[in-house]
Design a protein that fits this description.
oxidoreductase, Cyt_P450, Cytochrome p450, 12 strands, 18 helices, heme binding, alpha+beta, 53% helix
Length: 472
């Protein structure tokens, strides 16, 4: 009891000392609040909606930059198109990628305490994707027909013949099926179904408080990550056996297994499993979210649906029965992709990412110290009427000539050296889904004003139930 009394009496003193020391040692920092000691403003950031969190502080402190403390890190948020440009133009000069502690704990290959080695791992990971060209259009064109056939099969199994479905879980099953086929070279529905729930828990836990006891997000995420790691190690063993038997493999996992660094050393299975888990997570949740919100926003706007339908009719009307989508078909989906752009402006599939300052640097008249974290988000421009007149109006015609946009105002896939390497993969997956769902159905939202929950990943609270009306 005495110890508790002493702690309570001492707390205000420590709080005052914390504030005084912080202010005296950082007198040219951006405006903002560091919140409470240790936890900072993490609670409001995670549970009060990151987008609202940023807008509120831009209005209160500065439209260009403000400081905060989130996820246990001293952080600055650089805002607006100038902020986008500064960040994208100075990768590896002022910034490097940073994974929050929750993510580091789940993806164990990022736990190496030596930052130089961590950065080397991330650079090698990027090379694995870019050097063989897996995600470049010229490589993806050969995967499009398979993507179309998988999407059609998913429609037959989960959508056709149903009066009502929950769209969001089905878009997740579809995107994980596509990602497993593309990244792992496996097409086993039962196995993929088992993975979906684990990936959901990992996605939610990537940006969470590192509180590891039953019932917390982080506990569930860590448990799910361990289960995924075991499953992926099993897949790796099966892949090695198949490759040893002379099987021809054309997937990213096979490349990772045989790829060696300059010293001739191959990656350990645990590291391969971590990298594949990260790639699958990225290729799963964001694409599924974009598909689901396409269903939501187009379902609310029949006139938009009719325009998408007309464009897609022209494409399937020009094809023979049973003929799969080709690259030229995708290039004809201009209006459909404009709709997807507007979907991503309204609800970005990923709210933001983090960087770490490699050195002290100055921006907007303030100094950001080495080691501080930088939070980047698309949301600082997406709803700004200066760049998007009538920002609450869903208007795909905004993108009829995207080259006229002021630079760095619309960056749904990021920019610079760290622009999303899966941009073209995502475009193909989403447009293939749009083609197939519009070809088969009209739909109506069961809950027109369904609540959107989640922090870094927006989620329809009830799974986005829709009533289906088949065209056939």
């Amino acid at each position: 009891m005495e110890t508790l009394y002493l702690i309570l009496c001492s707390a205000p003193v420590f709080l005052v000392l914390y504030i005084l020391i912080f202010i005296s040692s950082n007198n040219n920092l951006p405006p903002g609040s560091m919140g409470w000691p240790i936890i900072g403003e993490t609670i409001e950031f995670l549970f009060g909606n990151p987008e609202k969190f940023v807008f509120k502080r831009m209005e209160k402190y500065s439209p260009d930059i403000f400081k905060t403390n989130i996820l246990g890190e001293k952080t600055v948020v650089i805002c607006g198109p100038n902020g986008h440009k500064f960040l994208f133009s100075n990768e590896q000069k002022y910034f490097t990628a940073f994974r929050p502690h929750s993510m580091q704990r789940m993806f164990r290959s990022y736990k190496d305490p030596k930052k130089a080695q961590i950065q080397h791992k991330r650079e090698e990971e990027a090379k694995l994707l870019r050097s063989p060209g897996f995600l470049r259009p010229e490589a993806l064109v050969h995967y499009l027909a398979k993507m179309d056939s998988i999407t059609q099969e998913q429609m037959k199994v989960h959508w056709e013949g149903k009066a009502q479905v929950n769209a969001y879980p089905l878009t997740k099953t579809l995107t994980l099926t596509l990602a497993c086929r593309f990244f792992l070279g496996i097409d086993e529905p039962q196995r993929i179904t088992r993975l979906v729930e684990n990936f959901d828990d990992v996605t939610v836990g990537m940006h969470s408080l590192v509180v590891n006891f039953p019932g917390t997000r982080f506990y569930r995420a860590t448990k799910a990550a361990n289960a995924l790691r075991r499953e992926l190690k099993s897949v790796i063993q099966e892949k090695k056996e198949a490759m040893g038997g002379g099987g021809q493999m054309h997937d990213i996992l096979s490349h990772m297994i045989v790829a060696a660094d300059p010293s001739g050393k191959h990656m350990a299975e645990a590291e391969i499993a971590d990298k594949i888990m990260g790639l699958l997570t990225a290729g799963y949740s964001t694409v599924a979210t974009a598909m689901a919100f396409f269903i939501k926003y187009v379902g609310e706007r029949p006139h938009i649906y009719q325009k998408v339908l007309q464009e897609q009719k022209e494409i399937w009307g020009s094809k023979k029965a049973g003929e799969l989508l080709e690259w030229d078909d995708i290039s004809k989906m201009k209006y459909s992709w404009n709709v997807v752009y507007e979907v991503m402006r309204f609800t970005p599939p990923l709210q933001g990412t983090f960087r770490e300052a490699l050195n002290d640097f100055s921006y907007a008249g303030y100094t950001i110290p080495k080691g501080w974290k930088v939070y980047w988000t698309v949301s600082t421009t997406n709803k700004n009427p200066q760049y998007f007149p009538e920002p609450e109006k869903f208007d795909p015609s905004r993108y009829d000539d995207i080259s006229t946009f002021p630079t760095f105002t619309f960056v749904p896939f990021g920019g610079g050296p760290r622009m999303c390497p899966g941009k073209e993969y995502a475009r193909l997956a989403i447009l293939t889904f749009v083609h197939n769902v519009v070809k088969r159905f009209e739909w109506e939202l069961v809950i027109p004003n369904e609540n959107i929950v989640g922090d870094m990943m927006p989620t329809p609270e009830k799974g986005l139930p829709i009533r289906l009306r088949s065209h056939y």
